[in-house]
Amino acid sequence: MLKKIPMLNKTSFRFGIVFFVFFIGIISENNIQAQFHGKNWGVRVGLNSISITNYKAYQAGEILTNSSYINKNGYLLGGFVRFNLNRIFLQPEITWNEYRRTCSFSLPIENSDNYYPPINLDINSKAVNTGLLVGYNIVHNYPYLLGVYIGSNFIGTYRTNYSSERENSFSQADWSLNYSGLLGFSINISRIYFDLRYEMSLPNADQDLTGIPDSPDNYHNVKIKKTEAVLSFSFGVMF
């Protein structure tokens, strides 16, 4: 006896139809052709991942034991304008980023040569980045673009949140400015836009827990010295 095949959920089916029609409408050449000349603007959303290329934790100038770090994925949302000069393009952009990483270290026990168990300290920072890319389209044939680019970013960090498994949490709301060089490539399929980039090591990426009002007493005089690089992937739409 044949078993009855379950019906698809109506909501999921309708969502699938809407998505399919929307996708076909965007990439269809007979709909609205993307213009790869003059000026375009776009939006993108994606993920970033921080790689700490050098890391040490200090307290009162002494290196803390069990120092290590864990990479985590963060998020980005941004917009850009592209000025096309035949195959060459200029692309100013602005992006909101949340960067996430976990650093670990052991604090010394007072009046003892021993150390507490390692602390995993989650560090999440929020930043607004402004950048300028200079690129060249290797492939420049509708509906396809393949471009490579180099550029630089100014990174304005406006809040950093700290938390640990010992339920200690505190934050620092203070603007700091940093910069980085970057390189990457982008792909366009009609209006659909994909982007993969690498931001080279960020100078002045140190974390200073000294002077943060809500930090626990045993975190005072702790400084984390590190250099960071960022790999990010995003997708979006370009008009």
What does this structure look like?
This protein is mainly beta. It has a single domain (12-238), classed as Beta Barrel (Porin), CATH 2.40.160.20. Helix content is 8%, strand content 65%. It has 1 helix and 12 strands. It has one helix at residues 10-27, and strands at 38-59, 62-63, 65-71, 73-85, 88-106, 119-141, 144-164, 169-172, 176-189, 192-202, 207-208, 222-238. An 8-stranded antiparallel barrel has the order 1-4-5-6-7-9-10-12. A hairpin with a 2-residue loop joins strand 4 and strand 5. The termini are far apart. Residues 1-8, 10-15, 17-22 and 24-34 have low confidence and may be disordered.
Strand residue percentage: over 45%
Reading the helices and strands in chain order gives HEEEEEEEEEEEE
Name the helicity range: under 10%
Tally of strands:
12
Task: Tell me, rounded to a whole number, the average pLDDT.
Answer: 84
CATH names the topology as Porin
CATH class: Mainly Beta
Give the overall form: elongated
Rg measurement, Å: 23 Å
Calculate the terminal CA-CA distance, rounded to whole Å.
55 Å
Q: Name the poorly predicted regions.
A: 1-8, 10-15, 17-22, 24-34
- CATH architecture classification: Beta Barrel
Instruction: Please work out how many helical segments DSSP would assign.
Output: 1
Order of strands in the sheet with most strands: 1-4-5-6-7-9-10-12
Q: What does the main sheet amount to?
A: 8 strands, antiparallel, barrel
Structural class: mainly beta
Query: What's the number of domains?
Result: 1
Feature tags:
1 helix, Porin, mainly beta, 8-stranded antiparallel β-barrel, 8% helix, elongated, 12 strands, 65% strand, 239 residues
